Amino acid sequence: MWLKFGFTVICSLLSLSLSLFAAPFSHTLTAESAILINADTGKILFAKNAHQPQYPASITKMATGLYAIKYFSHLLDKSYKCSQKALGCLTEAEKSKGNYSKYPSYVLETDMTHMGLKVGEEMSFRDLLLGHFIVSADDASNVIAEIAGNGSIEHFMKGVNSYLASIGLKNTKLLNPHGLHHPEHVTTALDVALLAREAMKDPLFAEISKMVKFERPQTNKQKPVTLLTTNKFLVKTHRHYYPFVTGGKTGYHRRARHNLVSAAEKNGRKLIAVTLHVDERANVFEESKRLFEAAFAEKLVTSTLVSSGKQPFSREIAGGTLPLTTYTQEPLALAFYPSEQPEMRCQLVWDSITLPVQKGDRVGYLQLLADGVPVKLTALFAAADVEMSFFHALYRQCSALIAHPASWIALGALFLAVVYFKVARRKNPKPRFSK
To answer: Which numeric CATH code is attached to 3-16+302-382?
Structure first.
């Protein structure tokens, strides 16, 4: 069994170097809410009002699209008819006049973003999903939800919200699959970042989210047509094109203003940026890019918590002639980006040790924890021989002798022999001679 001891590395060894590394981002953004995270670790590099409720607009489609892919991929190549229920429209004024309670929250609006679906039009679930995400088609969103919800868009949305809660979104409530305005349809920048982090792990979702166009196929109602993405980060000919972006989703309506969630990767570092409620459309791209650029400009720094060589870690071993002293062959160090500086702690773990110990024997290890997660370790070795004391060696030999079954048999035989000898003497006493 291992003996385990935790310790925090002496502050005086690290305070100077770590203070030089600390460089939290400080940016002035017009976005009401924003966040930048590491997509692999979830580490927050920058945040502004990240917990403040916001209207997600069409970023909603990231949630409904991911849920559809996760749980209804078996429907992808099946064809379905678009219903009147899914495609029914009202003006925004009509919905607002009814205080958003008179009509179902999924009802479409006449000035929505759409792909021109018609009642009775037949299209595959896959093509509906492509239109839903690439073109940001609200009509496709409703058709998908009705199909996957077995005729009930409300039922589909219950599933979406349960799924979002299961992946850690604590402040998101979505009432429709497309993101058209409803006063209770809200999220936060942090939740959007967590959603994107989960979504980009899915191969099909990641592939769709970086597509720049959608070839709408010929159907029983319409001719084929090419439709283009709303995400200008992905369009090479656009002034907002950013080559490191690997996917994302735009969003807009009058109350939500401009929203954007983007994933980007450079030199193996994966980041996710979210900017919500930005008044100017150009700014939503420029401010997200500014966050990416600041992070990608960072250089890795290395913090050495334990150097190689002789270590101060020692222990007494019962029966040993000397305390056990230690050394390491390799340093315990961690490289990180300044904006992602973790809380670092070392943990000393002793192996189960038996005497004698020879110089160079492994006797334990030092483990580095970053934000509580084990990330690296280096072995501890004995710096000198530790012999067994004479009395401990004698005690061990006696203990071993006593513990051996043959010893007990021999002792038992000796005991019986003594008893037999004494009994025999009593029965046959020696004759006594008088003088």
So the answer is: 2.60.410.10
